[in-house]
Amino acid sequence: MSTTLPQELPPTPYLRVDPVRLRHNIRRTAERAEDAQVALRPHVKTHKCVEVAKLQLAAGAVGITVATLGEAETFARHGFDDIFIAYPLWLDDVSARRMRDLAADATVTIGVDSSEGAAAAGRHLGEGARALVEVDCGHHRSGVHAHEAGTLALTAARAGLDVRGVFTFPGHSYAPDKLGQAAVDEARALTEAAEWLRVAGIEPAVVSGGSTPSLSSADTDVLTELRPGVYVFGDAQQWELGSMSPDDVALTCRATVVSHSNGRLVLDAGSKALGADRAPWATGYGRLLEHPEARIVLLSEHHAVADLGEAPLPAIGSRVDVVPNHVCNAVNLADTLYVEDAGVLTAWPVVARGQNG
Amino acid sequence: MSTTLPQELPPTPYLRVDPVRLRHNIRRTAERAEDAQVALRPHVKTHKCVEVAKLQLAAGAVGITVATLGEAETFARHGFDDIFIAYPLWLDDVSARRMRDLAADATVTIGVDSSEGAAAAGRHLGEGARALVEVDCGHHRSGVHAHEAGTLALTAARAGLDVRGVFTFPGHSYAPDKLGQAAVDEARALTEAAEWLRVAGIEPAVVSGGSTPSLSSADTDVLTELRPGVYVFGDAQQWELGSMSPDDVALTCRATVVSHSNGRLVLDAGSKALGADRAPWATGYGRLLEHPEARIVLLSEHHAVADLGEAPLPAIGSRVDVVPNHVCNAVNLADTLYVEDAGVLTAWPVVARGQNG
After folding, report:
1. Which is nearest to A55 in space by CA: A111, A1, A105?
2. ipTM score for this prediction
3. Chain A residues touching residue B298 (CB < 8 angstroms)
4. Under an 8 A CB cutoff, do B141 and A305 touch?
């Protein structure tokens, strides 16, 4: 897949990967999972790259997690054969046909969080389609309450699905004071949900959780599987949450200084390169890797305006590395990641970019 | 360019265009410019589509505005020959070569907002390259102060550029109580900057401004040119600012209801389809066209969670139209816009998607 480029780098803004940091991040998390004897099933929505997913499998991941049918199809086409679509998919005639085609190439598990969704999946996919019941552990996005997991599992099983267990996403770990609490909530909800499955007569083989912020607190006595995504690259959110250090950041957006308007640094990387994500607790719209004191105070489509306080401004025409707030959305804006490894420039296609459906 | 699709619509989420509303929006703004006897040079960053730009030219636009060299190259390849790159481009050897190639196909004007930028442009592009001096009228993004415009114009002219006038972007119009004030600031800054150009011995042929929120208040006695972008489609920001009505919204993201978790509507359109934009004054992460009472209270990459209050929830598996907060960023996430016109489904490629550099 990857292409070695003999020629010059692309125009800014572009995304560059530090392969040493990337491999370190992949290895560290794989070792943590191995030490705790839990399966690691990384979420590939973060990188959408075959090359990165292969590194993850080579380091011991049991399979991959995706968010959409389109992502699953893309990775299956590249030989990935154990895929969890961690999403309450709605199956109609068209998506069911796609699921059946996909099942010819890969073992696929889907999420269910409603009796309607379970019934549609059972009706369209037929006997034995694998599913996990999604549980809401405090993020309040999707999923049923833990005490409803048994009833839903039974409904899904009666609809013909092979209910393999339960999963949750502790997304409320994305808050500076909630990383540990989210992991506690995750373990509690999954324990309770797994118990309700047993009450319903279904032994949960899979108890799956994990987010990058809560990773180091994840209760691996409860969980059988971890599904972090962002840990491969890191981003300004992980930096500011304290879940990863700036020294771990393996993906940046290389930008050119185009102006010093109003005494601030104006860069050519805007929301169309970085994404517009800004959590309420974020200090700005991203960080500058070599200027930790800088704050991106204004972001528009093609401008990031950074305040460097009293520090001297890098010259107009010079280049800086921006750490996006949310790396998953930054990657999804790019067709290519550029990797400089031991002096060789390689282009990794973002093969699943835009595969939202 | 466009393709007539005989077959089914794509999986959700996808972007759909209402062509009747689109044509109405284009016509209304063209008429306003014509009535006021100002040139209309729409910003095509909003749609990145040849088909929409052609409708704009057919309605009387004098040329197009773009934000990047890549967008300019894309539109020049499709025959657009009068292009303003409304950006303080930094020109180095590579981008200068691209600019020279571009100039073979189109009349191109660039922005300058620093003596460094002007010197580099003059050095690389040679005599006669067209430029407008960018003025900051209150958005505090890029641009010089109005009273510095004459000095910069003189520097640029001495560097060899053909300084044609001044431009600004009244981006501070993006606040509920600032639409009119931003237009006043725009007119004042441009008047002063134009005067400073005359003091420097340069007659400004072009006095260019305009944003969609400030459009109806733009002072067309001062401005010779308007550069709005969003007006073609509208979005939730314009809706909530009151600068466009929900009845004007010509682009939506068609999404499927995948869950009723926690009694709320969970849709399969997240930040990877809608963009993550949320201004401090926005009521949520987008709006639902047919459910004005709904608020999108949580957005992640593939989930939008909408609170409908006491209203009944559309059924799981049904479809709704989401109005993105910022349509420019939503379009830049899609490869295709789907247009249903008089029963015929057409696909418009987003040809300049991702052309950030």
Report:
1. A1
2. 0.97
3. 140-141
4. yes
